[in-house]
Amino acid sequence: MFQGETAITVDDKGRLAIPTAYRELVAGECANRLVITYNPFEPGCLWLFPHAEWEQVRDQVNALPKVKAAHRDMQMKLVGAAAVVEPDGAARVLLPASQRAAAGIEKKAVLLGMGNKFELWSEQAHLAKIRQSIGEDEITAEMAVLRL
């Protein structure tokens, strides 16, 4: 559904404009409802899910046994912090201030379409991540069979 990299500017009120290429998808397929939450695996990054996709993720995460600390951490970062956002008339969504601050997202950010969701990266975290190469010792069996 979503694919591509877009440089984004966050305005002084903490809003970002949905890129033109995604506006129809967000309006139609997402019913103009996105859910923004933390990426529990990467600092400097937030996730934006279409609402229907989010409900599936939320239910899977909430089904994890709460006796394990890692499960509780994931539930807190994903479900506990989740906020429903709807684009305004100018196709802007308001990013929660607490999430922006925790991810270090200021004026400049990068929006990545990752298929079923968006990733919103702080400019600095994105640059650091994209400059890292994948080493030979990190290649998994699943990666080794890809024809790149």
Give a quick set of tags describing it.
Chemotaxis protein chec; alpha+beta; globular; two-stranded antiparallel ribbon; 6-stranded antiparallel beta sheet; 28% strand; 6 helices; 148 residues
Question: What this model shows, in words?
Answer:
By secondary structure, this protein is an alpha+beta fold. The strands form two sheets. A six-stranded antiparallel β-sheet has the order 1-7-8-4-3-5. Strands 2-6 form a two-stranded antiparallel sheet. It has helices spanning 20-28, 51-62, 69-80, 97-103, 123-130, 141-144; strands spanning 2-9, 15-17, 34-38, 45-50, 83-85, 92-94, 108-115, 118-122. The protein has a single domain (2-144), classed as 3-Layer(aba) Sandwich (Chemotaxis protein chec), CATH 3.40.1550. The two termini are 21 Å apart. It contains six helices and eight strands; from the N terminus they run E-E-H-E-E-H-H-E-E-H-E-E-H-H. A hairpin with a 2-residue loop joins strand 7 (108-115) and strand 8. The model has no long low-confidence stretch (mean pLDDT 95). Helices cover 35% and strands 28% of the residues. It is globular. This is Transcriptional regulator MraZ.
Question: How do the helices and strands line up, and which of them pair or pack?
Answer:
Blueprint: E1 2-9, E2 15-17, H1 20-28, E3 34-38, E4 45-50, H2 51-62, H3 69-80, E5 83-85, E6 92-94, H4 97-103, E7 108-115, E8 118-122, H5 123-130, H6 141-144
Antiparallel strand pairs: 1-7, 2-6, 3-4, 3-5, 4-8, 7-8
Domain SpoVT-AbrB: 5-53, 82-125
Pfam families: MraZ
InterPro entries: MraZ, MraZ_C, MraZ_dom, MraZ_N, MraZ_sf, SpoVT-AbrB_dom, SpoVT-AbrB_sf
